[in-house]
Specification:
The chain has 91 residues and is α+β, with helices and mostly antiparallel strands. The chain is built from two helices and three strands. Strands 1-2-3 form a three-stranded antiparallel β-sheet, with no helix packed on it.
């Protein structure tokens, strides 16, 4: 795999004065030739992306007769969610 994904934050562009300088997050994706693209996916889009990646990896594992890595990555995501819940609880 090539490329890089970075989380960036900048001031927002809201027309509502209350939110004019509200922090806004986006993903900076750097591809081949250092071409940069910025996107702000919804959580639903991120969820769908993860499902698509898992399905793709499962298909590749099946075609290569490999043991699925999915259980390992699911556990990793569960641990990450627990960390997030703990951080939210400690705010």
């Amino acid at each position: 795999m090539t490329g890089q994904i970075n989380l960036k934050v900048r001031n927002g562009f809201s027309k509502d004065a209350r939110y004019k300088y509200y922090p806004y997050w986006y993903l900076e994706i750097i591809g081949d030739g250092n071409k940069k693209v910025n996107i702000t996916p919804s959580f639903e889009q991120i969820r769908n992306l993860l499902i698509d990646i898992f399905n793709h990896e499962k298909m590749v594992d099946n075609s290569r007769n490999r043991i699925h890595d999915a259980p390992k990555w699911i556990k990793y995501l569960e641990n990450t969610l627990e960390e997030i819940k703990e951080e939210i609880k400690n705010e």
